[in-house]
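My main concern about presentation is that the manuscript never shows what a single data entry looks like. An entry of this sort, consisting of the sequence and the corresponding C-alpha cells, reads as follows:
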Amino acid sequence: MADHQRIHPVHDPEAQKPTIPLVTRDSSRSDKGDPAHHYPPHQRTIPVAYSRPPKKRSCLGRCLCWTLCLLLLQIIVIGILAAIIYFAFDPKIPKYSVDSMRITQFTSNNDNSLSASFNVNITARNPNKKIGIYYEGGSRLRVYYSGQQLCEGSLPKFYQGHRNTTLLSLNLNGQTQDAAGLLAGLQAQQQTGSIPLNLRARVPVRIRLGKLKLMKWKFLVRCRVVVDSLSTENNIRIRNSSCKFRFRL
C-alpha cells in the first residue's frame, strides 16, 4: 500500500514577524498619507455667575423712614390729645355778632380820598363750661366795601371766662385813596337802602383748659353786614348780619 501522504505545515519565518503599525494611535493619516497631529476637541467655557451682595440701605432712605415714623407717631399723639380734650372739656366754637354801627365821619376830601370813622359794637360769646379765652394784643379788625378797605381798628386785650358774654365797643378809622369811583358806587347803592359791608377780624388768642394755658392760636372772624345807609346824619339800621368763625395756628 502506498504510504499515506501527510501534510505538514511549513514554518514561515516571515509570517511570525510582529506587524508594526505605520501610524501611531495618537496620530491620524492625512489625505496624502502622512500622519497628521491629533488636536484635543474644543471645550466650551461656561462663565461663572457670581451672586451680587445685597445692596445696603442708603442714609437718605433710613432718614426718610425715620421721618415718616416720627410724623405718624406725632399724628397719633395729637389725635389722642384731641380726643381727650374733646371728651373731657367738650369744646364749643365761640360766637360773634355785630349788634350796632355808628358812623362818626364819612367825608370826601379835595384829593379824591375818603375819610371814614366807624363805631362798631360787637358781642363775643364763650359758650364753654371749662375753657377760657385770652385775647392777646396785635389783633386787627377791618371794614370793606366792594373789596376796598374803608377803616380798621383793633380789639383790646382781655380774658373771657367760662360761659361769658362780652360786649366790645370798637372805634375804626381809615382813609381810602382815589375814592371817586368808590363814592359813586356807594351813592348809587345807598338809593336802594341796602349797602353790604364785610368785617374781617384776625385775633391772636390763647386757650385755657382748666389751669393749663395752651400755645397761641389765631381766630379768624368774617361778618357780612347789610346796612340801610352810610350817613353821619341818620341812625344806621342793620338789616342783616351773619358771622363765620375759624381758627389756625
